[in-house]
Write a structure and sequence with these properties.
This protein is an alpha/beta fold. It has 14 helices and nine strands.
């Protein structure tokens, strides 16, 4: 089920369609596809916990001229239980997991980018999603997947530092989480007492997720995206994030160019996580960005786009070489 409409970008037209990706367990993932199916390369972007595909809007806007020129096809989607995507049967059968999100990403590739080279970008939980796909389906990397951008993310051991935000949240025991989940409707009503445009709400968001140079507009936009997520998304995914550990399963990512980004003020996935990734992926490029927090795709979108452009250039260059060799 899709719908198509033109959008404008710097006096050019970008064709956009909305698609529903159905997973084997019945979830429907809401996806947006910008650009022509004939583009030489597809970029697929996965967002983070309690966010939605809108978290990539600033990056998408900067890529719009390339999309309008027919050089790029962009796929963004809402992870299950986030944005406009549904949950599927998983929460009723077994706890949600990052591995399940990796399987979902595989479905997105098969249904929306079945042919041609692909570059993947993942922010926070989206980066973990890519790692889960790489661990489960390594044959995709180096063949279909030609490059990866990992932004503000981790391969595991998120909660070991009690001083970090993730470590503090990990103190919530399973019984407490279940109690919170059971009272989700009440908590949703309480959330409305402090809407995202409230100064106190934005102050909390800024302190947890943004660096010193973040503008009020950035913080307000991020607060609105997160507020649109549900209490259920916040609570149900916490154990999955704590259980995520792909530190010994990154081999597939050594087959492709990788760019790693982390803000020097990131409290959710502090710099040590990106340094561990760089140690496991010695050919990867590590970028530690000053005065920047966890929301790096908003705070420094041009830096992320520059890296994505390098990955796209490498992906299409490999395709041209392979064609010449035929």
């Amino acid at each position: 089920m899709t719908a198509a409409a033109p959008t404008t970008a710097t006096a050019s037209t970008v064709w956009r369609r909305v698609a529903a990706v159905r997973t084997p367990d019945g979830a429907q993932l809401h996806a947006t596809v910008d650009g022509s199916d004939d583009a030489p390369v597809t970029l697929v972007l996965a967002h983070g916990w309690t966010l939605a595909q809108a978290a990539w809007d600033d990056v998408a806007d900067l890529l719009a001229p390339r999309i309008a020129a027919g050089d790029l096809r962009l796929v963004r989607y809402d992870q299950r239980g986030h944005g406009r995507s549904t949950w599927g049967s998983a929460p009723d059968v077994a706890p949600i997991s990052i591995d399940q999100l990796g399987q979902d990403l595989g479905e997105v590739l098969e249904q929306l980018a079945p042919d041609g080279p692909v570059v993947l970008g993942g922010h926070s939980m989206g980066g973990m999603t890519i790692m889960a796909l790489a661990a489960a389906r390594p044959e995709l990397f180096g063949d279909r997947v030609r490059g990866v951008a990992l932004v503000s993310t981790s391969a595991g051991d998120l909660s070991s530092d009690p001083r970090s935000a993730a470590g503090r949240m990990a103190r919530l025991k399973p019984g407490m989480l279940n109690a919170l989940l059971g009272g989700a409707r009440v908590l949703e009503r309480l959330r409305q007492l402090l809407p995202p445009d409230h100064p106190r709400h934005q102050k909390m968001v800024r302190g947890l997720l943004y660096g010193a140079d973040a503008t009020d507009e950035m913080v307000a936009t991020g607060a609105r995206i997160m507020h649109a997520s549900t209490v259920r998304s916040f609570i149900a995914f916490m154990p999955a994030l704590d259980d995520h550990d792909k530190r010994e399963e990154l081999t597939a990512l050594t087959q492709v160019p990788v760019e790693i980004f982390v803000g020097d003020s990131d409290q959710l996935t502090p710099g040590r996580h990106s340094r561990q990734l760089a140690e496991a992926l010695p050919d990867a490029q590590l970028h530690v960005v000053e005065r920047t927090g966890h929301m790096l795709t908003q705070e420094r979108p041009q830096l992320v786009v520059d890296a994505i452009e390098r990955l796209l250039t490498a992906a299409t260059a490999e395709r041209a070489v392979s064609r010449m060799g035929r």
